[in-house]
Design goal:
The chain is an alpha/beta fold and 526 residues long. It has a single domain, classed as 3-Layer(aba) Sandwich (Alkaline Phosphatase, subunit A). The chain has helices spanning 34-42, 56-65, 69-72, 88-94, 142-150, 191-203, 249-255, 257-265, 284-314, 346-349, 377-384, 399-402, 427-432, 482-499, and strands at residues 9-15, 44-50, 100-103, 132-136, 213-218, 321-326, 353-356, 366-373, 414-419, 440-445, 449-454, 461-464, 507-510, 513-516. The strands form 3 sheets. It has an 8-stranded mixed β-sheet with strand order 4-3-5-1-6-7-2-8. Strands 9-10-11-12 form a 4-stranded antiparallel β-sheet, covered by helices on one side. Strand 11 and strand 12 form a beta hairpin. Helix 7 (249-255) packs across helix 8 (257-265). The longest helix has 31 residues, at 284-314. One of its GO terms (cellular component) is cytoplasm. It holds the Pfam family Sulfatase. Residues 8-386 form the Sulfatase N-terminal domain.
Length: 526
Amino acid sequence: MVRKDRRPNVLLITCDQWRGDCLSAAGNKVVRTPNADALAAEGVLFRQHFGGAAPCSPARACLYTGLYQMNNRVCRNGTPLDARHGNIALSARSLGYDPTLFGYTDVSPDPRTLAPGDPRLKSYEGVLPGFTVRQLLPEHQKPWLSWLEARGIDSGAGFPDIHRPADEIVGATTDGAVTTSPPVYSKDETPAAFLTGEFVRWLGEQERDTPWFAHLSFLSPHPPFIVPEPYNRMYDPADGTAFRRAASWQAEAQSHPYLAYELGQQQRANFRPGAEGKVRDWGDDNLGRIRALYYGMISEVDAQLGRIWQAVKAADAWDETIVVLTSDHAEMMGDHFMLGKGGFFDGSFHIPLIIRDPRRRKAAGASVDRFTEAVDIVPTLLDLLGEVSPPHLDGQSLKPFLDAGEPGNWREAAHWEFDFRSVADGHAERHFDIGPRQCNLAVIRTKQFKYVHFGGGLPPLLFDLEQDRDELTNVAADPAYLPVRLELAERLLAWRAEHLDQSLALAELTEDGVVGHVAGLPPFQS
């Protein structure tokens, strides 16, 4: 147990693009995740946990700041994170930790804080302020490639070709068929294995009496979809449930203008280097093999989680360490003829969350079916560390669930946002003939219904999830559902009104000075 004279260690792990239903502890009958399951057996599994946005940078902005996209305003990969916002690393540092990063955070720095020629302005893969970087692993993966070279693996192809099958000629295009052939690197030489090794080495250097805060940010199971033996053939492509989709991609495209646009945009090369053509035309055999590889990638990163658990236990720190295991966003995995993330489907936003606090054993092994969101992570960690969460944050602490309780006035719906503007080239803006401020959607999802509101005059969507689990039939124009549509639209509007930027709205200047809360400053009067 954590000694009363010191704070606990914190281990925050994100596995990029891990879908929430791809966890054996959550009931998946195919994919096997024994080490994540072991964590769930000692902690709490949150079954209805949702990311706040997509892709990576917007999703992580919600996770790291505790603010919805409407407030952090990170809309796309490359959108700068306003320097005025706090985050979990800065908060941990203020408590005496040295938050240490292994991997990446995909945070674009505020250009107003940098000189015009600063090279950091040329990449969206910046580091969240507050973190000490022990091992950076951005998209080009050069540190990992150098490590492979030192182990005798020819990495001359670089990224992304290093992730092509070893029996495929680099530089050649393929006929479109997806194989389960492995890459040139082994199961002990994956990027996840590399990062885990760096963490284990760092952990051995930590002073026993000094609490630490580490963030491991794994790329897996993010594309490219390829994995070494034995994981590449661990799962049969025929296994798994049927894809959630209409009879054809054309039918999907006809159901809404945004889906038609997205299906036309997705390119196979973004998911398998060297592949040509559009994802929508890949066919069931190829999508089935991709799903099997995706499951294998999950099992591979799960094996690295096992190494981490062993290392923390060997350091005699397991019972002094809070562990949070989650993702930034999820993966469509062939549903609706799509791969990747974005849009409004649950497949893109339903993500895993497991929290283990060794001081709270009453709820060990429990699962929670209430709606939780990525913005809840920051207030939860602050609460577990004995700090009062700033009232302007959008998330709520999950600590009551960890104490086997039920918090009062908990949300009855999940919310997320997706912004599809393309500032650099204006592609989406031209396609829909709308402005960048209108290229967005917002979702409210209850147990029974999902309502999707679009900007720019695009038609709304309403799904009756009890009758239509696969989100195929839009009933927004059905007169029988008009009361439901109006109610959810009003609830979505009320949600936005409640959560719009509260940085200064919770403070007031009076004859006695400042009363209330100013984000970034200590509380004034209550």
